[in-house]
Automatic annotation (TrEMBL):
InterPro entries: SsuA/THI5
Subcellular localization, as worded in the UniProt entry: Periplasm
Organism the protein comes from: Tumebacillus lipolyticus
Protein name per UniProt: ABC transporter substrate-binding protein
Similarity comment: family membership: Belongs to the bacterial solute-binding protein SsuA/TauA family.
PROSITE patterns the UniProt entry points to: PROKAR_LIPOPROTEIN (PS51257)
The UniProt record lists the keyword Signal: yes
Keyword Signal: yes
Length: 337
């Protein structure tokens, strides 16, 4: 029986990360007048619920926009699509704009609308731990993320802040692709897992893992996931960027005024492999953890916190100007509406 439960859990996790397509759009005559906007999201995740709410609730459409959503499955891939003009807007971590800037790009990528304000990953243990302490990672192995990614930098930052030296006190496994990490953990790899939801909830439901800590709560607020575009796009299409940001703000208002059950019902089409009760539990966890920004404004203090984390990880090569990489004009206007 337990073998059967394990197979179901593995299949569910695998099915989740195979989801790449969003719900089909209505090809009515009225939609022909909409402005098409190509959006590349880094991964498909419940963490990005405001984006799916904006699509499903018709907020983008009411602003005259037709969103063509693509899932890149990787921050580097999403950024490549943006730089190659295969996408107009990308939903990625703000740190990617710093990397592009450090490489001397002539057309900078600018962050203009914040979606999440904390790291969205959780620490999953194989057994229940009632009184968790980060020192319990010492001598253990942790399935983590790739070097230079924000999840990995946050993880290392939190460990150091709690007296745990990454790669010395704890072995961090980094050779497993994101979409295979939860499956690998369920199969026996690692003592702990840095997981994005709903992987943690699915593992808990199957009795194969238990969430014991939140990386987001222990690392503070930062512009973890934002909408961004090339500076040239923002300059040439300010009306479209404003309409896009207006829709994002409407979705954020919905997220913060709705129950987990209501939000789950709206975004369910994007997570067909996830049970409604799991989806609801994850949304509640994110709401309780203050993961979603209440407005799209990218705060300078939070941006500075992200830079501090990058510097601690050795990924910040030079000083970075907030004014060069952040535009709050559209978010501030959307907030006032």
């Amino acid at each position: 029986m337990r073998r059967s439960i394990q197979m179901v859990a593995l299949s569910t996790i695998a099915a989740l990360f195979a989801l790449t397509a969003c719900a089909p759009s209505d090809n009515s005559a009225s939609e022909e007048k909409l402005t098409q906007v190509r959006v590349s999201e880094v991964i498909r995740s419940i963490f990005y619920a405001p984006q799916y709410v904006a699509i499903e609730q018709g907020y983008f459409k009411s602003e005259g926009l037709d969103i063509q959503l693509d899932t890149a499955w990787g921050g580097d891939k999403a950024m490549t699509r943006l730089l190659a003009d295969q996408a107009d807007i990308a939903l990625i971590g703000a740190e990617t704009t710093v990397y592009v800037g450090q490489q001397g790009a002539s057309d900078k990528v600018v962050n203009f609308a914040q979606v999440t304000q904390r790291d969205g990953s959780f620490l999953v243990a194989r057994n229940k731990i009632d009184n968790w302490d980060w020192s319990m990672l010492k001598g253990k192995s942790l399935v983590g993320s790739r070097k230079g990614s924000m999840p990995e930098m946050v993880s290392e930052y939190v460990l150091k802040q709690n007296g745990v030296t990454p790669f010395s006190d704890v072995n961090i496994i980094q050779n497993i692709t994101f979409d295979n990490q939860a499956t690998a953990f369920a199969s026996g790899t690692g003592d702990f897992l840095q997981a994005f939801e709903p992987s943690g909830a699915i593992l808990e439901q199957a009795g194969q893992g238990y969430v014991v800590a939140s990386f987001g709560q222990d690392s503070g607020k930062l512009p973890y996931t934002v909408f961004m575009a090339k500076a040239s796009t923002i300059k040439s299409e300010p009306t479209t960027i404003q309409k896009f940001t207006n829709a994002v703000q409407k979705a954020q208002n919905f997220i913060h005024s709705s129950t987990p059950e209501e939000v789950a019902k709206v975004i369910q089409p994007y997570f067909e492999g996830v049970e409604s009760k799991v989806l609801t539990a994850v949304i509640k966890r994110y709401q309780d953890g203050d993961a979603w920004a209440k407005d799209a404004v990218i705060d300078q203090e939070e941006f500075s916190n992200m830079l501090a984390i990058m510097k601690e990880a050795g990924e910040l090569n030079a000083d970075v100007s907030y004014q060069d990489l952040v535009n709050t004009e559209f978010a501030e206007k959307a907030k006032r509406q």
